[in-house]
Amino acid sequence: MSVTSRYREAWEGFWGEAPEEQGAVFWDAEPALTAGVHLSLFEPYLVDPGLPMVDLGCGNGTQTRFLASRFRHVVGADISAAALDHARRADPAGQAGYRQLDAVEKAEIQALHTELGDANVYMRGVLHQCEPDDRQPLADGLATLVGERGRVLLVELSETARPLLLGLARGTEGPPSKLAPVLKHGIAPGEVADEAVPEYLHAAGLTLLARGELSLLTTEQAPDGSRVELPSKWVVAGRAV
């Protein structure tokens, strides 16, 4: 079984069992606290806001629908058909389009770029969940999608997030209710060094335009009742101007 096959099956299993309601999944925080915050970092670097916006790794489409309220043409793409079923059911008006996509498969990425042309890309928390052999092909796919005029905003957990997640998972009462299904399906985040992220983008032919740190909010509660926040890094990249 290939790396991608294992990855696809893990996500199909997860989304096949995931509840429908927004906020029931560990990372499914409301857009005002996620994509809304990220967009304020992204928009100053968009050369052409009129380009299609691709929400890569869109899951159940919560952030995709928010992006569709801000941009004319938005496509939510995900490797999991079950995730896209959630997204379409939650979007009966068809605010966005949805596409099953294996972002490490060059032919699939090229086909989407041929259809859309250059695009702006929003990707949150996907790279760190990939197997090591898939990380550079994923970055290469991002470069294909943005082409010459697009930009990508990449938000990933920082190195210091892993011990925090392990601490939650190993609590005396077991993993919290929303983290448990993630671990059950083998979707525990891998270790991606903070400096490896810009290196992947550089190797793909993209130039780093901006970077920073912020807290990535989850829908889970800590034992003291506060919302679990995970440290993350963000970068904006595109072709050199």
Structure description:
This protein has helices at 3-17, 35-42, 62-68, 81-89, 106-116, 132-146, 161-169, 180-184, 196-203, and strands at residues 53-56, 74-78, 97-100, 120-124, 151-157, 207-221, 227-238. The chain has 241 residues and is of the alpha/beta class. The protein has a seven-stranded mixed sheet, sandwiched between helices. Helix 1 runs parallel beside helix 4 (81-89) and helix 5 (106-116) packs parallel to helix 6 (132-146).
Give the structure's gist in a few sentences.
Helix content is 36%, strand content 22%. It has nine helices and seven strands. Helix 3 links the parallel strand 1 and strand 2.
Number of helices: 9
- Helical content class: 25-40%
Coarse morphology:
globular
The overall average pLDDT, rounded, is 91
| Low-confidence regions | none
Q: Which value, in Å, is the CA radius of gyration? A: 17 Å
Strand order of the largest sheet: 3-2-1-4-5-7-6
- Total strands: the figure is 7
Euclidean distance between termini CA atoms: 41 Å
What percent strand?
15-25%
Structural class: alpha/beta
What string gives the helices and strands in order?
HHEHEHEHEHEHHHEE
Task: Let me know the largest β-sheet.
Answer: 7 strands, mixed
GO molecular function: methyltransferase activity
GO biological process, one term: methylation
Pfam families: Methyltransf_25
Protein name: Class I SAM-dependent methyltransferase
